[in-house]
Design brief:
This is GntR family transcriptional regulator. With about 250 residues, the protein is mainly α. The protein is built from ten helices and four strands; from the N terminus they run βαβααββααααααα.
Amino acid sequence: MMAEATATGSTPARVTTPRRANDRDLVDSLVTVLQERINAGEIPAGSWLRQEALAKELGVSRMPVREALRELQARGSVELIANRGARVRLPSTRDIIEVYELHGLLQGHAGEAAAELITSQQLDRLAAAEELFRQSVEDLRAADDDTTTAQRHWHEANTEFHTVIIEAGGNKHLAEMYDNLHHKVPRNLTWIALGNDVRRLEKDAAEHAGILDAIGRGDPAATRALLTEHVKRASDLLVRTVDEIGQDSPPRRR
């Protein structure tokens, strides 16, 4: 069943309104807020985004909300359906394959450079993230029905781990490309694939530990190979997950 959502999270955020309702800064801030909530799964794929409800929640007029939704459509995060409104887009399997193919190339290239260029401070950050991966496994193992803590720790670890690798690689243009790719596939889809199976999460944590070891040893070739394979496995898992979600969803009205 398709959900219908505003931008609701645990604590709805109001966006500070500039002097003009259609100010570029306001639209940008709305795009950032909505994109982050989509990425985190607070607004799940398939949810309808109602302009009036969003405007009321965020404390703005409908016009900047409309512009923000158009920008999210351009990013591929939202689809605008004639006479029906805006809906958070579930990426297709082709989207995932293509996006993760690029992820693998960028991460592999950055990882190879990071193995030679990483600083001790960045290496410490990677080690802390790797520890948080292992903590998320224990959180999930101890959880009953509420996996919120495990999910939060995994998201924090995954974001930090791969961000540090990109930073350590030292290519700012590659970093910009990598950041743009994050808008294409909501990161909560990966948690949906991992968070219902402790063994999958353990394997994911072990893969990150292996990447950390290769970088710590200063082995560029091994780092590239491990990152590329890690991203490929994530892509395969996401494709299966999206196929399963698609099978459970009602057909789209044309």
